[in-house]
Amino acid sequence: xxxxxxxxxxxxxxxxxxxxxxxxxxxxxxxxxxxxxxxxxxxxxxxxxxxxxxxxxxxxxxxxxxxxxxxxxxxxxxxxxxxxxxxxxxxxxxxxxxxxxxxxxxxxxxxxxxxxxxxxxxxxxxxxxxxxxxxxxxxxxxxxxxxxxxxxxxxxxxxxxxxxxxxxxxxxxxxxxxxxxxxxxxxxxxxxxxxxxxxxxxxxxxxxxxxxxxxxxxxxxxxxxxxxxxxxxxxxxxxxxxxxxxxxxxxxxxxxxxxxxxxxxxxxxxxxxxxxxxxxxxxxxxxxxxxxxxxxxxxxxxxxxxxxxxx
Length: 311
Hints:
There is one protein chain. By secondary structure, the protein is of the alpha/beta class. The chain has two domains: about 170 residues, Rossmann fold; about 80 residues, Rossmann fold (3-Layer(aba) Sandwich). It is about 35% helix and about 20% strand. An eight-stranded mixed β-sheet has the order 4-3-5-2-6-1-7-8, with helices on both faces. It has a five-stranded mixed β-sheet with strand order 9-13-12-10-11. It starts with a helix and ends with a helix.
């Protein structure tokens, strides 16, 4: 019962933030006083922070909104183009605490429960991966600096206003309909904060996505726990059904087996973020692969930032 309620609330919230109906828009305007208070708190945090220079090049890839905007595949692409990165992220919904080294020079040291799904994507997608999860990013940066990092890739690091870094902000596609801060809109930080970015990354302009399905079967059910499942819309018509779970949802083998059985499906269609949590279940999975390529302009911007630290 609780799981069903959680899934319903996630679906409602996704519509509210990205595709609001008339009543949801009305609710958003009624909540504007709370959004204004939230706005003031964020602005105060931004302008009272004192930046710390850690003496190593730090590239932050973040966004202003809730939900997925493609930060993880973009970070993977950057790390593939420029060797020597230590990737640092919080490890949202992981079942561990403190700083944990997920991968060291390509050797995976934790399971997905302890690392979190996004950290495991980095660990399995990159050759010689160095990945750290930590609630305190400063502790992880100091560790990385003393363990051979050439530069730091900070996943979702825009909010760390007290860390000196090069800020890349990724614009979501599609963008939220309402440009309000929480709770009236999907913006964690004011829309005007794009002006504080050192570089704005936009899909189709600064980087490009290419997706395909591996191990495609006749009757696939799309099962995903990503923040914005509408990003998978190109694959909707290839599936007999779609089942959406809340972002970072921890699947069980029984519920995935039940989905296969109830729809008479021949495989589950999953993203890599979903698959890292289900790969040991022994179920047939069709995998949506995603490759991001960087524009020449983007590469040059990154090269100017990263190359001096690689010399």
